[in-house]
């Protein structure tokens, strides 16, 4: 009925607004907190704010991020859980691997298990990222006993949760989620191997220049903040995701969404590092202000075209879906 459709529309609008705002809030807060805590005495206090603002801006100017949020796709939940995992680590991480409390490791492993239960591929991204991050503050063979015990503890907690899930689920049906996937392209074809890079520049970034700039800043952020566990987990989760998504030939734009906020987080941290280096020059403050103004102008100008085509993209995604037909009839 029209009343039921109206309630459905109101509920969907609230879900979209809340999940979108929560994801952006987590992304901005994480970027600000990590940048501030890493070099609390060296950075001006407003530089972490600038990094957080740009991390959020990178997300806001991503056409696919906005589109999938409006569609309330499951990948958006995966992105939120990924940010919660990084937040749980970041709350205790101060750059000293030996100081991570055991309870934080357990909480992080439980969240990684929840990510798996949301969709198994999401868990395959973040569990390797968590374990690798715990033992790679230096070379793994040089990591202390506590770091390895923390990694083993995370694996045990994850394995217990996975075992309970396997005991409670219908195994034959569950196996279909792992095996029943269409192949869109041959594994070693250029179409498959280049799919993620092309996707990043075409839909996750508003322009080629912004896409390249984001990747460069993310590399800088990873390099200069490597001692932070939360950064290592983000980097290794991205690495695991890129390998898994490349091996999986079910190439769809939404599959990278759970990992995208981690990349924007690293880019925001990289920007803080670049601005801090610029400040050391004779006219450092002017260079920083000019860089920020130029960066925001670049984002705004690059986002004009994706923003104007967003409605058409949403209609194209919705067409053929029964819910869309019902909403269209109600609206007309």
Descriptive terms for the model:
77% helix, disordered N terminus, mainly alpha, 332 residues
**Care to count the β-strands?**
0
DSSP helical segment count = 16
Average pLDDT reading: 81
Fraction in beta strands = under 5%
Estimated helix fraction:
over 70%
- Spans where pLDDT lies below 50 across 5 or more residues: 1-11
Order of SSEs: HHHHHHHHHHHHHHHH
Q: Which sheet architecture does the biggest sheet show?
A: none
Global structural class: mainly alpha
> What global shape is seen?
globular
- Alpha-carbon distance between the termini? 14 Å
> What Rg, in angstroms, do the CA atoms define?
21 Å
Overall description:
With 332 residues, the chain is mainly alpha-helical. The protein is 77% helix and 0% strand. It has helices at residues 2-38, 46-60, 63-70, 74-90, 102-118, 120-134, 145-168, 171-179, 190-193, 195-204, 208-224, 229-247, 260-279, 284-308, 310-318, 322-331. Helix 1 packs parallel to helix 13 (260-279) and helix 6 (120-134) runs antiparallel to helix 7. It is globular and about 65 Å long. The two termini are 14 Å apart. Mean pLDDT is 81; it is low at 1-11.
Q: What is shown here, in short?
A:
With 332 residues, this protein is mostly helical. The chain is built from 16 helices and no strands. The chain starts with a helix and ends with a helix.
Lay out the secondary structure.
Blueprint: H1 2-38, H2 46-60, H3 63-70, H4 74-90, H5 102-118, H6 120-134, H7 145-168, H8 171-179, H9 190-193, H10 195-204, H11 208-224, H12 229-247, H13 260-279, H14 284-308, H15 310-318, H16 322-331
């Amino acid at each position: 009925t029209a009343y039921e459709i109206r309630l459905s529309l109101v509920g969907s609008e609230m879900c979209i607004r809340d999940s979108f705002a929560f994801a952006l809030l987590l992304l901005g807060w994480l970027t600000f907190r990590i940048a501030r805590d890493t070099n609390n005495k060296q950075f001006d206090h407003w530089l972490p704010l600038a990094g957080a603002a740009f991390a959020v801006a990178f997300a806001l100017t991503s056409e696919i991020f906005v589109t999938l949020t409006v569609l309330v796709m499951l990948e958006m939940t995966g992105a939120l859980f990924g940010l919660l995992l990084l937040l749980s680590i970041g709350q205790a991480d101060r750059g000293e691997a030996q100081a991570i409390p055991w309870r934080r490791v357990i909480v992080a492993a439980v969240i990684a298990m929840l990510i798996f239960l949301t969709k198994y591929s999401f868990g395959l991204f973040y569990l390797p990222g968590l374990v690798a991050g715990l033992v790679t503050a230096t070379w793994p063979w040089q990591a202390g006993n506590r770091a390895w015990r923390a990694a083993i503890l995370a694996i045990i907690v994850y394995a217990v949760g996975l075992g309970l899930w396997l005991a409670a689920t219908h195994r034959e049906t569950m196996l279909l989620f792992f095996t029943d996937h269409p192949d869109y392209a041959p594994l070693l074809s250029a179409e498959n191997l280049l799919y993620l890079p092309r996707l990043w520049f075409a839909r996750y970034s508003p322009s080629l220049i912004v896409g390249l700039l984001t990747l460069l800043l993310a590399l800088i952020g990873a390099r200069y903040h490597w001692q932070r566990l939360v950064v290592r987990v983000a980097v290794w989760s991205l690495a695991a995701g890129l390998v898994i998504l490349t091996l999986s030939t079910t190439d769809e734009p939404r599959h990278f969404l759970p990992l995208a906020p981690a990349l924007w987080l690293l880019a925001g941290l990289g920007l803080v590092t670049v601005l801090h280096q610029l400040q050391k020059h004779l006219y450092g403050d002017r260079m920083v202000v000019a860089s920020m103004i130029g960066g925001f102008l670049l984002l705004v100008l690059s986002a004009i075209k994706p923003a104007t085509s967003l409605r058409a993209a949403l209609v194209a995604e919705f067409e053929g879906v029964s819910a869309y037909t019902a909403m269209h009839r109600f609206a007309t």
